[in-house]
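Page 42, continued from yesterday. The earlier attempt failed because a stray header line got pasted into the input along with the sequence. Redoing it now with the clean sequence only.
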Amino acid sequence: MLLAIDVGTTNLKAGLFREDGAPVAQAERPNAKASGPAGTVAYDPERLWEAAAGMIRDVTAAAGSPRVRTVGITSMAESGLLLDPRSGRARTPILPWFETCSLAQAERVRGEIDAKAHFRRTGLHASFKYGLPKLLWMREHCPEAFDGSGVWLSVSAYLAYRLTGAVAEDETLAARTFAYRIDRREWDEPFIRHFGFGPERFPRVVPPGSAVGKVLPDIAPRLGLDGGAAVCLAGHDHVAASLVCSADGDGVYNSMGTAETLVGAIPARALSDADFASGLSFGRHAFPDRMFWMGGHSTSGGSVEWLRGVIGDSGLPYAAIMELLEGTAPGPTGILYFPYLAGSGAPLIDPAAKAAFVGLTAKHGRAELLKAAIEGNAYQLEFMRREAERVAGAPIRGMNVVGGGAKNGVWLQIKADVSGIALTVPGAAEATLLGAALSAGVGSGVYGSFREASAAARRPASRRYEPDPERHARYARLYEQGFLTLLGPLSTCYRRLT
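This time it went through. Structure tokens are written below.
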């Protein structure tokens, strides 16, 4: 059997699958946040390891202690820590992707590079999210962590180390440090040294799905495993999910959670000025000779969570949210919501962008505000989708949708109506977990290739959402004449006020 671990922003998940992708057992636990240095939000490495180990025990026990051939680990990108490989101790907490403490360091990096040239090497635009700015921040605020050895690892690589004792990083997560060259597939040593780090701060890099070792014999029995299970790095969670959302690496999919991401693939090639101008990020795909493009929006489900707390004394229950949404009239509210509670991502990257509601009247209540928040996030996704079409040079005629937000049928119908394209929710409820299992199956020899793994997985029936032509026409007018028209003036206004 194939075992997978998915470390998300909000939850940790583990799943056990047969080789045809059929689920056998699953466990889930909160990914509890902790207080980090200098008032930051962080994750405690030991606590995370204990939670992951507990979930492995849960799923193996639920399945009757089966023979697990391989373990695949995927995780949220850009989150990491310094590990001392000599002692095996974490020298820092895990700083998550959303922690903005490294904004000043990202600005320093931006000021010391040729942005276009660095983008062509890395596929990234400078941001506080990435590993290098976080390392610079840690060096300033936790200098004792840099006395002696210490290697920057993603969360996936850290859990793989705890299972195997091996230090390695998956390429799709190495690329989210801002210090890895996807054009040469190697660490950018001159760039790393420019910021005062030695190349030993970064681990060896392996392709997605690679086996980095076997479960240590002294911990295997406590986890319900045997020492022969290979541990594989399944890498970036969105890349792992793409193995389920597309059988050949060509499909476009949308991941809905606290943050929202749009992901697609193109043939491997040199990056251009047009790619840079798109605001999208790029990286090497698990599928051979392919690259992925990615656009992110950090407060999609986060907007709904924020509003849910604002309009409910102790947080509006989800059942109440759905009742309010389902009671609204079909079609647009007429309210424009700009969903930038934590800045804006692609296509117009602006960390200083602010959220706004435009068009409110006294007739609008909680239901309309909630629906407007969903509409605004759908407009932002449409903004990314149209830019991705230009980059890929081909129309996007449909999308797969995965993640916790995909359970909200009202939201999905609004997305279909805004975009004018059909949305499909794959029957595999946990696409990221299954993708990690399939990736590990490649790394351990269960499948001969990623395409074979993707094709082998059973996919249950899916839900499909078709756009309504009349509602699409109304949404298109609001998007083009309202949302896009006001983006520039609102951004200028807030910059003048701050």
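Notes: The mean pLDDT is 92.
Reminder to self: strip header lines before submitting.
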